[in-house]
């Protein structure tokens, strides 16, 4: 918009907007005659953490330059809505008759609060779309190698509890070891008999015979 007066004249408009729409929207007034400290008034600055005396952001400055470049009439009102991360921003350019940008009025609306309010209203009005059921979990797939590692870990743990090494164990001691392994359910895993036979230095037939004693 074209305005040849002072940018400070827009401060009452900022107050009006803030009083009308509450503290959930940020209103900022920039004066480009004050480089490095363009913000001369701000309402609800807690939304972005900015304050009077701060400078315009590089993002907004770049957007302004793009707006001027794309505008055939620099004296025409130029309002550009920009999407930022979780923030919707409206920028109103304040321009002089010579086409120079004198100031900027920014409106910043945080989107998370709007989304939450929208979900709340949809729930109250019963207009929320039905939630899609969660996709079924894929069937469990197991790595045989992981089972072997688990079985070996359990067997080694049982052997570590014995004071006698497998080479020096009596048949009775080996049966006791196999019983403890059996009680942990390890023999339900494929290939464990061969693994136990190697750990105890006996044949698989011997392991099967010892298991028969436990039944």
TrEMBL record:
What is the protein's species of origin?
Anaerotruncus colihominis
Alphabetical list of Pfam families matching this protein: HTH_22, PAS_6
Top-level taxon of the source organism: Bacteria
Q: Which PANTHER family match?
A: TRANSCRIPTIONAL REGULATOR DAUR
This one is known as Transcriptional regulator
By its UniProt entry, which InterPro entries does this protein fall under? DauR-like, DauR-like_HTH, YheO
Enumerate the spans annotated as YheO-like domain. Answer: 8-117
Membrane-spanning segments: none
Residue ranges annotated for the Transcriptional regulator DauR-like HTH domain, each copy included: 152-211
Per the UniProt record, the lineage of the source organism begins with: Bacteria, Bacillati, Bacillota, Clostridia, Eubacteriales
């Amino acid at each position: 918009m074209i305005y040849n007066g002072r940018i400070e004249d827009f401060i009452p408009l900022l107050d009006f907007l803030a009083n009308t729409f509450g503290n959930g929207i940020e209103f900022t007034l920039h004066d480009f005659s004050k480089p490095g400290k363009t913000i001369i008034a701000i309402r609800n600055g807690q939304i972005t953490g900015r304050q009077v005396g701060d400078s315009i952001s590089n993002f907004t400055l770049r957007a302004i330059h793009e707006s001027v470049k794309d505008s055939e009439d620099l004296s025409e009102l130029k309002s550009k809505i920009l999407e930022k991360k979780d923030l919707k921003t409206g920028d109103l350019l304040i321009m002089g008759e010579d086409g120079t940008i004198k100031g900027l009025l920014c409106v910043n609306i945080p989107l998370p609060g709007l989304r939450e309010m929208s979900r709340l209203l949809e729930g109250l009005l019963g207009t929320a779309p039905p939630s899609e059921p969660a996709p079924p979990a894929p069937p469990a797939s197991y790595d045989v190698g992981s089972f072997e590692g688990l079985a070996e870990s359990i067997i080694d743990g049982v052997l570590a509890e014995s004071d006698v090494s497998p080479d020096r164990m009596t048949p009775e001691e080996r049966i006791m070891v196999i019983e403890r392994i059996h009680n942990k359910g390890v023999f339900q895993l494929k290939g464990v008999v061969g693994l136990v036979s190697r750990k105890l230095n006996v044949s698989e037939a011997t392991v099967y015979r010892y298991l028969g004693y436990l039944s």
